[in-house]
Every structure is written in C-alpha cells, then in structure tokens.
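Can't attach files on this board, so I'm pasting raw text. These are the components:
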Amino acid sequence: MTNVVAEPVAPMSIASVERDSGLPKDTLRVWERRYGFPNPLRDKQDERLYPADQVTTLRLLRRLIVAGHRPGKIVGLPDDQLKKLLEKVGGPDDQPTAYEAEPVLGLLRSHDAVGLRNHLNAIVLRSGLGAFASVTGPRLVEAVGSAWARGDLEIHQEHFFTEQFTTVLRSSISAAEGAGLPRVRPRVLFGTFPQEPHALGLMMAEAMFTLEGCLGISLGVQTPIPEIAAAARAHKADILALSFSSIVPAAQATTGLAELRNLVPGTIEIWAGGACPGLRPMPGVYVLRGLASIGPAIEAWRSRTNFTE
Amino acid sequence: MTNVVAEPVAPMSIASVERDSGLPKDTLRVWERRYGFPNPLRDKQDERLYPADQVTTLRLLRRLIVAGHRPGKIVGLPDDQLKKLLEKVGGPDDQPTAYEAEPVLGLLRSHDAVGLRNHLNAIVLRSGLGAFASVTGPRLVEAVGSAWARGDLEIHQEHFFTEQFTTVLRSSISAAEGAGLPRVRPRVLFGTFPQEPHALGLMMAEAMFTLEGCLGISLGVQTPIPEIAAAARAHKADILALSFSSIVPAAQATTGLAELRNLVPGTIEIWAGGACPGLRPMPGVYVLRGLASIGPAIEAWRSRTNFTE
DNA sequence: TGGCGTATTTGTCTAGGACAAAAATGGGAT
DNA sequence: ATCCCATTTTTGTCCTAGACAAATACGCCA
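---
Top answer:
Structure tokens for the assembled complex are below.
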C-alpha cells in the first residue's frame, strides 16, 4: 500500500538507475542484451530511459540475487513470480531467530528511533556487552539481514538499524576501554578486505577483544591488502583481525589471506572470522568460529607468548 | 618522507582506480585517448593496469580540477608542475590549516593511536563540541585529505584517522544527546546519496544539529534516493539533511536533489551542505554554507514554523 | 556422500564514435 | 572599459557489440 494514486515519475537515465538499484551500467546493458530485460525507452539521443516500475523490478532482482538466485533464471520473470520467490527466501530456519529479533523488527517497522536505541541499550545493560557482542548482536544482524532479503524491510530501515546498532555498540566499547587496567598487549589491528563493506561484524569483534583487555586499533572497512599489511607493521601489531561476512566469495578470502600472510612478518598472527562460509584454516592463519571463541583464543595467545599484564 | 625503500605495489585495474581516484572509468579511458595520460600497462587480456605513481598523479589532477583547473591544460603535465599549481591553489589559506593540523599529522606519521585519540578528545574538551564539529574538525579532515592526495599519507593512515575521529565524535554526540531537554523537533533525518561514502561530514552535521536540540535520525551513508524519500516520510521528518563532499560531481548532486525534491512532500524541507563546490540553491532546497550556519538556520526554522520547545 | 574435472553462466573489460552541456572566446553595443 | 550574446572549443557520459576469465552449476566416479 505505497501509493493509491500513481505518481507520474520521470523515467531515469542509466546513471540514476545504477545509483538507485546498485547494478552497474555494464550489467544493465548486458542483461538487456541477453535476457531482454530491462527494456528501457530511448530519448532523442538514443539514450536509455528506465520507467520507474522497471527500476522497482530491478531492485527486486538484486535482492533475489543477493539471496542466492541466479540472474539467468529470474531476470525477465514477471513481478508476481519474483515476489513469490522472495517470500520463500529465509523461510523455515527463521523460527529460532525470530524470538529475540521480533521486538527489534517491530520497532523498525514502526520507525521508532528512540525506542530502538533504548531497546538495544537495555539488552547490553541486562546481559552484558560480551553476550550482546557475541550472541544477541549477531542474531539481530542476521535477522534484519534476512528480513531485508525477504522484502519485509526496506533498505532504509536496514540502514537505520545499522546506525542505531553502531551507536550503541561504539559507546559500549568506549565505556569498556575506559574501565580496567591500562591496555598494552596484545595489540590488535582490525580491518576488512576491499570487497567487504560490512562494519558490524568487525565492531562486534572489536568489542570482544576490548573486553579481554587488548589494545584495539581499527582501520575500518575496505582497506586494500597491502595497506593492511603496512598498517600492521607500522602499528607493531601482535594480531591482525579480519572480518568476513557472507558476501565475500570464499576464494577471494583465501587468496587475500595468503597474500596478506606473505606481506607481514611471521611474528604477527593473522586471525580471521565471520559468517563467510568458505573460510578455512591455512598455514599461518587462524580461523575463529564464532565471536565467543575470541576470549579463549586470547588466553591461549597470552600463555603462548608468555605475556602477562 | 614516507618510504625510504620503494615497495613494489601491484598495478591496479581500472575499477580499482575508479574507486581510488574518484574518476569514472569512461573518463579515464577518454583522457588516455585524448591527452595520452594516464598511460597504463596492459595485462595478458589487454586490460589496463595502472602503476601506483600514475594513480597518485590522477589524484593530484582531480584535486586541481575540483579547484577550477581545466583537464586539457593540466592532464599530461609532469608531477612537479602539478604540485606547484596545487600549492598556489590552497596557497595563503593553507597556513592557518597547517597550524592546527600539524600535531595530528605528526601523530598519524608516528602511528600513535592512543595519542591521537587523546589529542582529539582534548580539542573537544577545550573548545567545545560546537567548535570542534564546525571549525576544527572540518579543517583536520581537509588537512588529512589533502595530505593523502599529495602522497604524504598512506591510505591506511587516512583510514586510521577516520576511525579515531569517528569514535571521538560519536561519543561526544551521545553525550550531547543525553544532556539537555527532551528532544522533539525539528526531527532531522541525515543521509548521503549513493555515490557519497564519506561519513565524517554527515557526522559533524549531526553534532551541530544535536547541539541545537534537534532530534536526529541517521541513515548513514550511501542510501538510494527513493529510500531516503521513503525514510523521510516514514519518520515524519521536518528536515532532510544531506551531506556532499567534494568527490560528488556537482551535476549529480543537483540532479539527485531535484529527484528527491519531487519524491517528498513540500512540508519536509531539504537542506544540503558540504564541501561539494557545485552545490547551488534550487527551488525547495536550502544550501548551507559551512557547518557554523546550522545554528542560525535552526533558529530560523523554529520561528518560521512557530515551533517552540 | 564427498571430491574433481568439465560446461555454462555472468560480470567486467575493450574500442572508437557520437553528442549535449559547460566553459571559453570573440565581437559588438553601451 | 564593461556588459551581453552568439559562436567555438572542451569535456564528460553514453552508445554498440565483442571478448574472456572468474564464478558457479553440473555430471561423473569413488
């Protein structure tokens, strides 16, 4: 029930569509060539003009592709079929997640900024930062992500969630840093590869390391691999912690880790973690399964290196 | 004085250079055709491979063009001439910037995480959040950006600065939100267009609005235009605040703002600001020159709409 | 069921050409 | 000399259609 009266929206240029749908110009053109969709009008200079409804369909398609569908099978299908497919995505295994996430999804649906912030803060206060960053947080992120993929949430609601979540987590990390002993080691450098724009996983890891008394330094997301290596050397890091969400292709993660391993001295450990399914241990790279395993891993590092605070 | 030993950095693909320099692929190709620069190597499949030094030059060129030079006059010139031109550009008004930024650049060069954080926090405490977000902050960001463009800082140092700056600013905003009267109006929604990944400008604006007692809601960066519009309606925003850094082409900013203006009801005001030089006022869109003008603008809004706390 | 080699799919790159919007330039008229 | 308008140059973005490697699916065998 978005609009009762159809608004006359001007058709968009290919550059606008690229921005709004997230599909590169080259892809838009090659889909048109291969699958016959999109099927834009042309202006006087023979440039593509995309009607608004086709752009909407393109957004639907992008969601389905992110969810694992293949372009060849779905590009060109009528809208109602696409919507049916979208409903199936994320289906049955949603049940366990739903329990904790339901209030959050409700707050997102009602656009309640203050309520959401309070709710997240309450979770941190009630169960502690550790449980939030390693258990509840990942579940909420997962639930919101799949609700978005399913079409239950708009993009802007997902952005909004990310912002609120970030704010709560950041302030908790700051608070945790202030408390406790002066931090010295291990010095941990955080980052993600260039193809990984997802910051929440990295931040939850940062929270866990901070709780263990590490000195954390973050580069944020999407740092080129040679730059990560240079930073690790410059900051004299003990551990390089990399986060991989499920959007990173396994092969690229592996290649990148090997490249990185080559660029930093062996005295610096590389720890990789995240939801990326293809992450596998390799020589000189530790793979952490789940954020809860960070604590024990730090303990092990400390006894391994004979470092005591 | 970055590196004594030249490191062998792998040449970049055209897509990487587009991300890195902010110049679209088409422009890179057409410059090569017209001016003979850049002059990339080719890999086995005849695809362009840009050496690192050419990418540095491209960044220099982009800065000069943003500053008003014409491509035809400067593309192809040797680096030392470009640097001379660049010095003239920011010439006299570079002095005051250098004064405040020098300690920060020093801390970045020595990779002093704790020192940088303390230094930024000290500025906030000494001069206040308002002065930090509207005066010192922008100057620091500018100084770091141009040091990076000049090649005086590595990418990872710029990432590192961004993270520390973000942390300090966020916690200050949180503190400011907690203080003062309960926040009701204006309700301000923050965001950037999809081609704008720069979050610092947006956050500094958020700080200024928060200090004025507004209720701020952020979508973070890179939200598609129709989604921004949908969020504005859903959150019943009074003001939509958009941030534009200098990497956004003026034409795209204008087009996008017009599109956005069409999509949201006239009762919601659109305020645009940022370092983007081509930002011009247009019907239904206010352009704020400088973060310091946010305060008076809010006052004006309050008296215009007869809203009193 | 799990691993491995082959076939298909898919995104991104290539080359030049074209053209409109933006900017610079020239030439009166005030 | 200054202002304004028309003409020329510059510049970015779009076009077509082909190519190819990386990613993925498929078929086969153990």
